Amino acid sequence: MKNIFTKVKTTLAVATVASIATLVNVSSADAASFELDWLGEQNYSAKGKFSYDDSFLGNIVTKDQLTDFAISFFNPEGDLLQNFTYDFPNPSSSFNFNFDTVTKTVLQSDSFDTPNGFDLGSNFATDVTGLFFYTYANAEEGLPEAKIFLKDDLSPEVCDTYPDCRLDLGGQLTATAVPEPGAILGLLVVGSLSRVLKRKLVS
After folding, report:
1. 107 and 57: one domain?
2. How many domains does the chain have?
3. Secretion signal: which residues (predicted)?
4. Domain identity same for 64 and 149
């Protein structure tokens, strides 16, 4: 009889865990979030975050699918230079960002105004100075492959001191998935109740 009650309690506990985990995950499964990181050759850096609707079925997320996007830039000493936060569905006219949902990578193999590049930070069309963060490729200018540039002026990409143009260049803009809060909580609940069940079964 004791074994029967133990099995019943175990079954109910497992069902409870599954229900809680399911409810927690359902409530937070409407957004996919990623953190952004970049480090240039001169040790300038960028950190950011973006999200899009998790129900999106396409392979490439563009500004039309984003729900939020923010990025911050830092000098080699780690001091904050500037923050940029974009509002959707109407970000800056110069904003360009493309993310492959299959490979989980930011597209950056072409110039800033193409589907395979990005254009973030200040607006080329309206800002004379600021922080311009973008990809650029032009074989005729000596850049056959796209590079990332972080600049605080509108000087040419192939400047007189290339590759030491201000402020920085090179590197890769990487994206790392942020675990959904519900998934983390669900795992914690499962782990906690599993330990309780083990103690009950042993006793």
Report:
1. yes
2. 2
3. 1-31
4. yes
Q: Give the H/E segment covering residue 202.
A: helix 181-202
198 and 116 in one domain? no
Same domain, residue pair 49 and 132: yes
The SS3 assignment for 183 reads helix
DSSP state, residue 26? H
Q: How many C-alpha atoms does 4 have within 13 Å on its Cβ side?
A: 1
Same domain, 49 and 148: yes
State whether 188 and 121 are in the same domain: no
CA end-to-end span of the chain: 15
The per-residue pLDDT string of the chain (203 residues; one tens digit each, 9 = 90 and over) reads 444 444 434 443 434 434 433 433 444 458 899 999 999 999 999 999 999 999 999 999 999 999 999 999 999 999 999 999 999 988 878 899 999 999 999 999 999 999 999 999 999 888 888 999 999 999 998 899 999 999 998 888 887 666 677 899 999 999 999 997 655 444 444 454 445 445 554 55
d(CA 29, CA 180) in angstroms, rounded, equals: 7
Quick one: which H or E segment has residue 7?
A: helix 2-28
Four-CA torsion 155, 159, 161, 165, nearest 10 degrees: 50
- 185 with 173, same domain: the answer is no
